[in-house]
Design brief:
Blueprint (H helix, E strand, L loop, with lengths): L18 H11 L4 H15 L13
Length: about 60
C-alpha cells in the first residue's frame, strides 16, 4: 500500500468511464494498476498535444 503522506504534487479525482471502454482498458493494461495506466495515458495525451483538447461531442453536456 502506498503511503499517501509522502506523495506530493498529486490531485486525486474520481472519473466515470463507460463499462465497454473500461473493459478494453483492463485487457490492454495487463498487470499495471488501472489508476497508473490511466495516468500514463492522460500524461502522454497532455504532453503530446501541449494540453488535452476537448472537442465538441467528446463530453456529455
Amino acid at each position: 500500500m502506498t503511503d499517501v503522506t509522502t506523495m506530493t504534487g498529486i490531485t486525486y479525482t474520481g472519473i466515470s468511464i463507460n463499462t465497454e471502454v473500461l473493459t478494453e482498458l483492463d485487457e490492454e493494461r495487463g498487470l499495471i494498476p488501472r489508476s497508473r495506466f490511466l495516468q500514463k495515458i492522460l500524461e502522454e495525451r497532455y504532453y503530446s498535444n501541449n494540453g488535452i483538447a476537448v472537442h465538441k461531442g467528446d463530453i456529455d453536456e
